[in-house]
């Protein structure tokens, strides 16, 4: 590896454009990795020496994502295009309101402030990611696997909503069937 290749590996990320679906896809994926790592350790090795650190990192990732999407990050981290904050929050409420109500039974969306709405939307994403991971683990135990395209379509659906490209969450039908079976 050359010096320039090594240096580029440690270059800070460019500011994220929250209206760009590819950027949102990557941001959600990073959040998902932290959340799923924490969930796995909590379930399988809660006494692991790094369990607390991993959990704190997952909380920090979630808090940072809420901070970014709420419009509190400076221009070195986020492209200032007016999407973060109230616009994104209103979009989350309109696009994911039913999802939020399903996950947080009895919640009054009108009583939530901007940050709470954004956090609730992200919690819905993480919950769905946990369900997809659970299904993937079950399929692997049975000698099958969830097609990679299903994961990609799942992430495309979520990133399209958070980037404001779609007003309705569209996820793979096989995922919705699995999710419905878990809601019973």
Question: Which key phrases capture this entry?
Answer:
single chain; 184 residues; 7 helices; globular; 66% helix; mainly alpha
Please provide a written account of the structure:
The structure is a single chain. Helices cover 66% and strands 0% of the residues. With 184 residues, the chain is mainly α. Helix 3 crosses helix 5. The radius of gyration is 17 Å and the shape is globular.
Instruction: Give the topology string: H per helix, E per strand.
Output: HHHHHHH
Integer-rounded radius of gyration = 17 Å
Helix content: 55-70%
Strand content: under 5%
Distance between the termini: 53 Å
3D shape: globular
- Strand tally is 0
Question: Main β-sheet, in a few words?
Answer: none
- Mean of residue pLDDT values: 92
Number of helices: 7
List the helices and strands and how they pair.
Layout: H1 3-9, H2 21-44, H3 51-69, H4 86-103, H5 114-141, H6 148-162, H7 173-182
Can I get a quick summary?
With 184 residues, the chain is mainly α. The chain is 66% helix and 0% strand.
């Amino acid at each position: 590896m050359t010096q320039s290749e090594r240096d580029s590996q440690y270059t800070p990320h460019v500011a994220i454009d929250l209206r760009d679906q590819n950027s949102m896809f990557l941001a959600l994926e990073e959040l998902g990795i932290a959340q799923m790592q924490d969930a796995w350790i909590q379930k399988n090795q809660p006494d692991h020496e790094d369990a607390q650190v991993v959990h704190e990192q997952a909380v920090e990732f979630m808090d940072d994502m809420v901070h970014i999407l709420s419009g509190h990050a400076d221009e070195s981290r986020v492209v200032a295009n007016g999407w973060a904050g109230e616009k994104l929050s209103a979009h989350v409420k309109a696009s994911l309101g039913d999802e939020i109500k399903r996950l947080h039974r009895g919640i009054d969306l009108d009583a939530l402030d901007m940050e709470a709405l954004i956090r609730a939307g992200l919690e819905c994403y993480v919950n769905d990611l946990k369900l997809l991971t659970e299904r993937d683990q079950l399929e692997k135990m049975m000698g099958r696997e969830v097609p990679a395209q299903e994961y990609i379509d799942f992430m495309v659906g979520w990133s399209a909503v958070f980037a404001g490209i779609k007003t309705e969450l569209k996820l793979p039908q096989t995922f919705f069937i699995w999710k419905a079976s878990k809601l019973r």
